[in-house]
């Protein structure tokens, strides 16, 4: 609280998995503030609650999602990784925003999926509170819509000096269970050689700049020369070794 005085705090609730989305008032508190904070960091502008919104088992998450994952995370190095055990492949996207929504930070997050886990990485540039929302596709659903599963409140106490965005990923990045080792920065230097390292249990070959690279026992590792500044570099993949068709996996910006 930034001013001395009295405050009214209302606590609302609803039963877990309740069909009715309305909240009921549970309690009202009168708070007396006798010492105000001189430097006050804002929370994200959000009227909902942090925690699980729906049953994780309906999205193929293991029981540990509930018992081992905290929804308030205090980070001291500007980077945060959340890893959730799953029972099968989960399709997920995240939304990341700072308290004041002053910058577009969507590409400072990266989602990687396997059949037994889902991993979310984020990078932060300011001493701030961040809201991370996890959207997932229900199990055995043919619909393309994603539902909000959980909200996380993250406090960054020591941000990165110069955080770099992750590459932009497409739906096939998750479908093909891609694990990206390098490069993990979304911007590549122009006219330079870059080493790509990634794995996938399903992809048989990749194509970058019209060059095709086959998978080895260790996965994929090859060198690509970037083009001029202002161009894009896209990694394509195919699960069929003999096919000539590819799907987009991720895209980089050349600067």
Walk me through this protein's architecture:
It is a single chain. This protein is mainly beta. The chain has three domains: 1-39, no CATH class; 51-156, Immunoglobulin-like (Sandwich), CATH 2.60.40.1220; 168-254, Immunoglobulin-like, CATH 2.60.40. The relative contact order is 0.13. The termini are far apart. Strands 11, 13, 15, 16, 18 and 19 form a six-stranded mixed beta sheet that branches. Strands 3, 4, 6, 9 and 10 form a five-stranded mixed beta sheet that branches. The longest helix is centred in the first third of the chain and has 5 residues, at 64-68. Helices cover 4% and strands 45% of the residues. The chain is globular and about 70 Å long. The protein has helices at residues 64-68, 171-175; strands spanning 5-13, 24-33, 51-52, 72-75, 79-85, 92-98, 109-113, 117-123, 128-136, 147-156, 168-169, 179-182, 187-188, 193-199, 205-208, 211-214, 220-225, 232-238, 247-254.
């Amino acid at each position: 609280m930034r001013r001395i005085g009295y405050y009214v705090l209302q606590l609302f609730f609803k039963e877990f998995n309740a069909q009715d989305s309305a909240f009921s008032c549970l309690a009202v508190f009168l708070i007396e503030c006798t010492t105000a904070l001189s430097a006050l960091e804002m929370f994200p502008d959000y009227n909902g609650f942090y925690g699980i919104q729906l049953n994780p088992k309906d999205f193929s998450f293991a029981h540990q999602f509930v018992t081992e994952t905290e929804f308030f995370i205090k980070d001291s190095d500007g980077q945060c990784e959340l890893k959730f055990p799953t029972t099968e492949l989960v399709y997920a996207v995240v939304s990341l925003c700072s308290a004041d929504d002053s910058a577009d930070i969507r590409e400072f997050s990266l989602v990687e999926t396997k059949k037994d886990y889902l991993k979310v990485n984020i990078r932060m540039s300011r001493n701030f509170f961040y809201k991370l929302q996890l959207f997932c596709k229900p199990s055995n659903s043919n619909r393309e819509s994603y539902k909000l599963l959980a909200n996380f409140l993250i406090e960054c106490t020591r941000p990165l000096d110069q955080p770099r965005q992750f590459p932009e990923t497409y739906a096939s990045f998750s479908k093909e269970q891609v694990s990206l080792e390098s490069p993990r920065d979304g911007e590549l230097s122009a006219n330079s050689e870059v080493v790509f390292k990634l794995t996938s249990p399903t992809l048989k070959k990749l194509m970058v700049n019209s060059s095709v690279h086959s998978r080895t026992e260790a996965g994929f590792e090859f060198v690509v020369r970037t083009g001029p500044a202002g161009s894009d570099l896209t990694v394509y993949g195919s699960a069929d070794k003999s096919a000539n068709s590819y799907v987009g996996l991720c895209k980089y910006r050349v600067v």
